[in-house]
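Tutorial, part two.
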Amino acid sequence: MRRLDAAKTIAPAFRKERGFTIIELMIAVALSALLLTIVYFTYFSINRSIEAATEDQDALETGRMLSELIKKDIRGISPSLSDLIGKNDVVDGLSLGQIEFVTSAGLPTDPLKMRRIGYALVTNTQGDKILVKKESTDLKDPFESSASAPQVFEVSRIVKGFQLEFFNGTEWTTGWDSSVAGSLPTQIRVTIDVADAKGRDKKFVAEETIQSTL
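Running the prediction step on this input gives:
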């Protein structure tokens, strides 16, 4: 009798230590999958937000940097070498401006060096728009007629529009040739369209007075 009673007391305890049922396992797997899905979408949502903010920041920094760079060069335009040429070509509704002039806004290592510089938005053989900067030590001749080819530097590939305007004292015009006008414009306005990685445009306007005309 004692052995039988002992068996009766052990059996219930053994039954309580059984494993999970199929239904319990299915519920656990479903909950795990739901949690993983939530974590997955949360992670990639945050990642996309960070990427979008980075793209916006890159476009903003490029636009501001170019605006300040061009304004600095315009402020150094020399009154004694006052030839300035600027024009705008329109392609697919976007302005591909070009400008060149002589400036004393030299490099930090040689701040007094005079240079002929130019900015132009050009397209390559693949149709990509590239903002380039040209530099030459030939102060007398424009780039097209100079005997020595200027140095060309790629500035940016996210500039989609580069428009120039010139103020003659009474109105704004979209072209200027100081050899024809006989003088420099009093102000220059540069409008830069910068596109982020998603193709969204941001517009930056830089307006600078030519000191030698004051």
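The mean pLDDT is 80. In part three we will examine how such features are distributed along the chain.
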